[in-house]
Structure formats: structure tokens, C-alpha cells
Amino acid sequence: MAALRLKFDEYDVSAQVDKVTDPIASLVFAHGAGASMHHGTLEEITRKCNESGISVLRFNFPYMEAGKNRTDSQPIATLAIKAALQLAQKKLGGPYFLGGHSFGGRMASHAVVDHGLDVAGLVFCSFPLHTPNKPGVARAEHMDAIKVPMLFLSGSRDGMAQPDLMEGVVARLNAELHWLETADHGYKVLKRTRQRTDDVFSEMVGYIGKFVSRLT
Fold first, then answer.
1. What total number of domains does the chain contain?
2. pLDDT digits (tens, 9 = 90+) for 7-53
3. pTM given for the model
4. What is the domain extent for residue 38?
5. Residue 210: exposure state from Cβ atoms within 10 A (0-12, 13-18, ≥19)
6. What is the pLDDT of residues 180-198, one digit of tens each?
7. CATH number of the CATH domain containing 160
8. Which of 6, 80, 121, 154 reaches 20 to 30 Å from 172, CA-CA?
């Protein structure tokens, strides 16, 4: 684990590399709208990825670094992701994958389109297809321009990913989708009804590991 600074334009934000020995790939992973790169969710995803042989680079978006509640605009967020990928390319070995939780994943998809980023694949955890109680697919319209493999991991109780809409988008994009059993948008599960014996983060990274391994 190494603490770094991510600098781009006038911004200077925190970043962290969790590197493994002989990695199969490296993942640049962006945080969600309401929590920083040090949130327990990202810590656990990183730990599980490391156990699966995947190095991870995390970073804070400028608004989070400044302690603000309002997320950055798309241009700023995508520039942060571009800079994070460039930093990963200096500090970590490839191939390089890009993704994030919720807002972070959505901005990663825009970054690939807006900046022509060269990555082996995209990993979307709890992709926010629409706002709660307002189903729609407008947030995925730009993704037809993405030409690399995509993996979507959404909780079966995620209120921001109506199943029929999510499945339609994934089919249109020729992407891969796995429903995380009984999980909500923040990965809380229903322990009484969950059939799987592993925890939700092991479930997630199991899919990520298989996805990455097929492409490396």
C-alpha cells in the first residue's frame, strides 16, 4: 500500500496504490458519490481484488477531497479518472481495467468515451442506471460508443437498477451482468434469505476475477 498524490489541472487529490506481487492486471477504481476512497466498501473491494491477484489504484474526486457534498461536473470527474489511469500506468503493470462504485463507475464510462482511454475492460459495481423511483435508461445512452468488454455487478435489490431495464441495456451493449444475491445499492444483504454462503464482496470479486482473467 502506498499513498500518492494525483495532480491534474489545478487539482491535487489523494490516491492510493495497493499493489500485489505478480498481478494478473491492475484496476483503477473510483468511489461513489457519498463516500471517499477510504470507505469500507472500497477497502473491502480492494482487499478482495488483491487476494485475487489484481492491483488496485483508488483516488478521491476533487469535491470529496475538498469536503464538499456536491459531486464534480462530468468534465472534472472524467479528467480525474484520466489522470488516475495515467498514474496507474506509471506505478502498476497492465493490462489496465477501469471502473468504480455507482457514480464512480458511471463517470468511468464517460471518461472512456470523452477521452478515448485505452483500457482492457470496464467494471461497474452498482451502476446507477437511474435515480430511485424514476426508472429510465438515459444514463446509458453514451455507452454504445464503448468498444471494450464491460462487466456490470448489481444487487438484486438495487433501487437504481430496475432489472428489466438493466438487462435490456446490458443486452444492447453485449456486456456481462451478474446480480448480487439480495444486495442493495450499498451491498447490504438479507442474511435470512441469501442462499450464497460467501459474503457479497467475495461474490463480487469472484466475478471480477473471472472477467479479468478471460481478458488477460
1. 1
2. 999 999 999 999 999 999 999 999 999 999 999 999 999 999 999 99
3. 0.96
4. 2-214
5. middle
6. 999 999 999 999 999 999 9
7. 3.40.50.1820
8. 80
